[in-house]
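Students often ask why inverse folding is considered easier than folding. One informal answer: many sequences map to the same fold, so there is more than one right answer. In these notes we will look at a single instance of the problem. The structure comes first.
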């Protein structure tokens, strides 16, 4: 199990408006011992990221209120999130979508539907100590 500098389980913020998708990601990662926080829209994501200070953010792009690109830009403009990895977790898998996610500040990109067996391994490199 990955731990942060305080010896606690790594904290992951899952930003996903679709309840089924969010519950699936939570189930997969909870079994790996991560501490999980859930957000259902852009405003919720900003608020929880700022109060919870997660080690990693899985960001759906198509979310209500403020889209994932904008939430990512807003977080990355704050010095305390400069080194917090944000991974776009999105059904936007068209040509150029990965580039758009990276330009907004995402460090990674995982296309949906997610592979339940690969997801824990896909996020692991982003959880190494900063």
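Output (designed amino acids):
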């Amino acid at each position: 199990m990955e731990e942060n500098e305080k010896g606690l389980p790594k904290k992951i913020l899952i930003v996903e408006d679709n309840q089924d998708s969010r519950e699936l990601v939570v189930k997969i990662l909870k079994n790996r011992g991560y501490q999980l926080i859930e957000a259902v829209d852009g405003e919720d994501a900003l608020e929880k990221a700022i109060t919870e200070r997660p080690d990693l953010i899985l960001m759906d792009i198509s979310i209500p209120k403020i889209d994932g690109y904008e939430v990512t830009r807003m977080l990355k403009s704050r010095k305390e999130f400069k080194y917090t990895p944000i991974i776009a977790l999105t059904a936007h898998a068209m040509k150029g979508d990965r580039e758009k996610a990276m330009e907004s500040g995402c460090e990674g990109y995982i296309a949906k539907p997610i592979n339940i067996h690969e997801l824990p391994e896909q996020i692991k490199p982003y959880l190494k100590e900063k």
